[in-house]
Amino acid sequence: MRARVLNGISDIPDRVWNTLVSRDYPFLRHEFLLALERHGAATARTGWQPHHLLLEDEAGLQAAAPLYLKSHSYGEFVFDFSWAEASQRLGRAYYPKLLNAVPFNPVTGPRLLARTPSARAALAQAVRKQAETLGLSSAHALFLDANDRAAYTEAGFLLRKDCHYQWFNPGYRDFEDYLDALPGRRRKEIRRERRKVAETGIRFEVLTGAEVPESLWPAIYRCYANTYRLRGQPPYLSLECLKAIGIQLGREVRMFLAWRGNTLIAAAYMLEAGDTLYGRHWGCVEDIPGLHFETCYYRGIEHCIGRRLARFDAGAQGEHKLHRGFAPVATWSAHWLAEARLRAAVADFLRRETAAVDAYIRQVAGKYPAATSSGLSTPRPRGSSQTNASPAGFPLAHE
Prior knowledge:
- The structure is a single chain.
- The chain is α+β, with helices and mostly antiparallel strands and 399 residues long.
- The protein has 12 helices and 15 strands.
- The strands form 2 sheets. Strands 2-5-6-8-15-9-14-13-12-11-10 form an 11-stranded mixed beta sheet, with helices on both faces. Strands 1-3-4-7 form a 4-stranded antiparallel beta sheet, with helices on one face.
- A hairpin with a 2-residue loop joins strand 11 and strand 12 (263-273).
- Helix 4 packs across helix 5.
């Protein structure tokens, strides 16, 4: 197979790229990546220079990886800033580095898109070769599924383990049925939080991207951008980018909207695909106690129960999710470092970090048995794809 690099996702027809992508995982669809590039979110100017890698033969495209030359480590959710500092001390610039990831989206799934296992293995080797050929300090792949972890391990990458929190649906009849699975104190807290929001008179609705009227996108964006403004940071996405994703992936996008009268005061942007709801971005223009939990978590859980979805991946971080029945689920990344001394130091660090993550998950399982047992016993719907399986590929108790 021949390797070919694209300077942008627009250099390949969407119908060709999308033959490698499952509808159950929208984050790697051509339309999604194109929106990020065309509207300025993933570009060389923002430190995300597209460098997508293809493997082709006489029959056409056999494998592809969304790659970026990164001039920083922001927007990745797998933190390697200390590695960059160590590399500098050793006399080698850490940036640019090569990154196999979905920009700004810490959602486990495929990163090596391939028609066959052998093509996947060849692609992992080709990613490393790209880093070596370009003389880069390192290559990284984030939020990997089980197949890609194996391919990158075979290619000589180091694995890094972390955990996120996800909610699993064993078949709840309704929201009250879900509450009954939680300890009594937690049930009371959640009911109190929801009651306080309800007493404000706020009403909620859920629209698909296709149902959002053109005139509403600026108000949705104000909510999203305000979250970053409060942190003193520029938002990753522009209004045009957010709207393009909403329109292009209209069937998958879910906008959870909170209204006070005719004024939109909060919005949570999510995607639904396969048997999973993915929580991505949230924002509000009024600080109302409990509104974040109601909009981002409780409405999402109700949606999953009503739609009989098996899983709610609400995003990175947030131990507060444990109190609401979410379970810790392992996430994985892979890392290749050219500098031998740095590689050895990182390998030692990862061994110790993995042991700490394992100990943490065991501790959480003992402290929040209702959450972890829900995750362990979740039935898989018939016909569900490997993409949406448990990110580690084996039972939570062993992650």
